[in-house]
From TrEMBL:
<keyword id="KW-0520">NAD</keyword>
<dbReference type="Pfam" id="PF02826">
    <property type="entry name" value="2-Hacid_dh_C"/>
</dbReference>
<protein>
    <submittedName>
        <fullName>NAD(P)-dependent oxidoreductase</fullName>
    </submittedName>
</protein>
<dbReference type="InterPro" id="IPR006140">
    <property type="entry name" value="D-isomer_DH_NAD-bd"/>
</dbReference>
<keyword id="KW-0560">Oxidoreductase</keyword>
<dbReference type="InterPro" id="IPR036291">
    <property type="entry name" value="NAD(P)-bd_dom_sf"/>
</dbReference>
<feature type="domain" description="D-isomer specific 2-hydroxyacid dehydrogenase NAD-binding">
    <location>
        <begin position="127"/>
        <end position="279"/>
    </location>
</feature>
Length: 316
């Protein structure tokens, strides 16, 4: 019997899955209640849609996990789903599908800060003046969370002549790219970095990790870049650190909540740049998600394990 795959992704994406050689039966989960697909599907492909967010904190539906053998999250983070999602026999995540794009965003943020050519541009001879520029080569990039995104950032930063210091949680088998200096604590990374890149998952451990104590460790002039999740940063503490000169600038692709309410101080702060959670450039890289999912579904149909299984105790 063919595998029944319920997918919350776009119709063209699902048509591509249905055309895989082992011909899975691809169905759309009930709109507004995607978890009900558990009554008939073997595999449920989910995205962080509002229905899932609305059920965070609520008990699991009676039918969950039903017939499901595998829940596959299109997103790398699983923090936007209710905790009972992990009651499914197997949960995987979309780790790696957008890391390269996100790393490009981080490098752009560093260059915008270090070499602000727009601010240095002149329009007349009278404008001719000395404008001090910062440095990329020779700067220290601190990567907090050396996973798929952190490693993609590290590769680029090393190639551009920066020093890279990093920290990770310490999962077994984790790889440290050549040239990266792995330090023993988040504090040590923050204390040395000119540009601090946040690339940890949102877990109980990382909630408000960047609070007053940690931000006080930053070098004067340091630049904080968050492409992970808004909840990792205590936003009140961030504003206080910027105002006190403990930090020079923050680039935030993610905030808590998203979007921030109208009038929030971060919108208008002169040392803050916010982008609307676009660093993954999802539309441009969704072919990578398709390739990953196609390979994983093919493996699963053969009785093999798919990639990037979420560890229930770690929470990512
Ligand atoms: N802005 C966006 O559009 C976007 C897109 C994709 C992902 N994200 C976010 O970015 C996060 C990271 O993505 P990824 O694909 O790089 O994930 P990943 O491959 O799972 O890497 C996460 C890294 O964080 C480390 N870590 C976990 N908890 C830690 C802690 N308490 N202290 C220090 N390090 C810790 C892990 O350590 P180990 O290596 O020791 O396990 C790992 O190196 C995702 O969870 C998601 O929330 C955002």
């Amino acid at each position: 019997m063919s595998l029944i795959v319920a997918s919350q992704l776009e119709p063209e994406f699902n048509a591509g899955l249905a055309a895989l050689p082992f011909a899975p039966k691809v169905i759309e989960p009930p709109v507004g209640e995607p978890w009900l697909a558990a009554e008939q599907a073997d595999v449920l492909v989910v995205r962080p849609s509002p229905e899932w967010r609305a059920l965070r904190g609520a008990p699991s539906p009676a039918s969950w996990p039903g017939k499901l053998r595998w829940v596959c999250s299109a997103s790398a983070g699983i923090d936007s789903y209710p905790a009972w999602l992990l009651d499914a026999p197997l949960v995987t995540c979309g780790r790696g599908t957008a890391s390269e794009e996100i790393a490009d965003y981080v490098i752009a943020a560093i260059y915008l800060r270090a070499k602000d050519l727009a601010a240095a541009s002149i329009r007349s001879a009278a404008d001719w003046r000395f404008v001090p520029l910062g440095r990329f080569a020779g700067a220290t990039i601190g990567v907090v969370g050396l996973g798929a995104i952190g490693q993609a950032v590290a590769r680029r930063a090393l190639a551009l002549g920066a020093r890279v210091v990093a920290v990770r949680r310490g999962s077994a088998g984790a790889v440290t790219p050549e040239g990266v200096e792995l330090l023993g604590s988040v504090e040590a990374v923050v204390a040395q970095a000119d540009h601090i890149v946040i690339s940890v998952p949102a877990t109980l451990e990382t909630r408000h990790l960047f609070g007053p104590k940690l931000l006080a460790q930053a070098k004067p002039g340091a630049h904080l870049i968050n492409i992970a999740r808004g909840s990792v940063v205590d936003q009140a503490a961030l504003l206080a650190a910027l105002d006190a000169g403990q930090l020079a600038f923050a680039t935030l692709d993610v905030t808590d909540p998203e979007p921030l309410p109208e009038g929030h101080a971060l919108y208008t702060h002169s040392q803050v740049r916010i982008t609307p959670h676009i660093s993954s450039n999802y539309q441009a890289v969704r072919h990578r998600l398709f390739d990953k999912l196609s390979q994983d579904l093919t493996r699963f149909a053969r009785g093999e394990a798919p990639s990037d299984i979420v560890d229930r105790t770690r929470g990512y």
